[in-house]
Amino acid sequence: MEEILSPLRRAEQRHWARVYLRGLLHVTGRKTPRRIARAGALPPTAAQALHQFINASPWDWEPVRRTLALRVAATVTPYAWTVAELLIPKRGEHSVGVHRRLDPATGHTVSCQRAIGLFLASGVHCFPVDWSLVLDEDWGQDWPRRLRARVPEAETARPAGGHVRDLAAGVVAEPRLPDLPWVLDLTRCDDAGGVLAGLARLRLGTVCEVGPRHVVFTEGPFPSVITVGELMDGRYARQPHGIPRQAADGGTRVIPIHTYVGRVRLPRRDTGRADGSFTYRVLQRPAPDGRRPARYWISSLTDRSVEDVMAPVRSRAAVRAAVTALRERFGVLDFEGRSFPGWHHHMTMASAAYAFRYLPGGPASGPVAPGTAPAEAAS
């Protein structure tokens, strides 16, 4: 923690950061400044000092997150970068970024903040190392409200895919961070093609799950425009593979994976024609029982075996467990302030608390949630 908090230049900032982190780790229930101060038997003024540290103190969260990411990468053996969306329910309309949105988990429209988290996957854990707050068009144009929430002028309203590209660009800008595949679930992304194109421009390896209607261009003397679902329906256009995995009973089971025999290209966003700069492979996991739909991935890792391509997909199950732990144990839903810097300060502290708990040598070394087992590739 001393290393991760070293970018905080003032001694009182580091002191209150340690107090806040202890509260995130040990306080049960809502983790607010008042409850943290009360649980630590601190003086009455401590709650105000903690509130000040999160909401008003002018410390820069980006160096802290960069130090956190470097520490995680140096301590564990990471195998993938991935992202996850987090909806944070909010009452009222004054908290920064709050807007009405459909919650895919419940099917209900909720008033919430929408966050995109960047995670570094290793073993059964996905460590959060960066965050982005999605602003809708109202927040992009309401300058009085932006001023009250201290939203930087450069922070604009843009789709979630734009935030993913920005997070990836931040990783590329730090050469000490590992060059790993980006494993993303783009099945509900409105701009899946834009995300793939943005990651390709950054020369990043990708393994991205897409919906069956995602459009690709086939190569060869008679190229065609086709969806990945239609492409993989062609019996003679796919090759079967089997990936052995250990079953829960100790035996071995084989996960069937089909691959397209050729390579595909993606449409350019400006012309709709095939982008000639990059080629991809298409992989399919057929429905195991005939009732659930097949799943599809597009990967830029064209020179690797099927098993190597699909291995990092296990991060998707791990990141879901990490998000659950962040919600239930580390207080990411409990930020009480209204400002943009305050939100980022709180999310930075929650990420540091997660790392303290689960990095090797920390107080916990098991899965992030009771009953969570190591995720299998293509699970």
UniProtKB/TrEMBL annotation:
Pfam families per record: DDE_5 (PF13546)
Occurrences of domain Transposase IS701-like DDE (ranges): 6-223
Domain of life per record: Bacteria
Xref: PANTHER family: TRANSPOSASE
Protein name, per record: Transposase
Provenance organism: Streptomyces broussonetiae
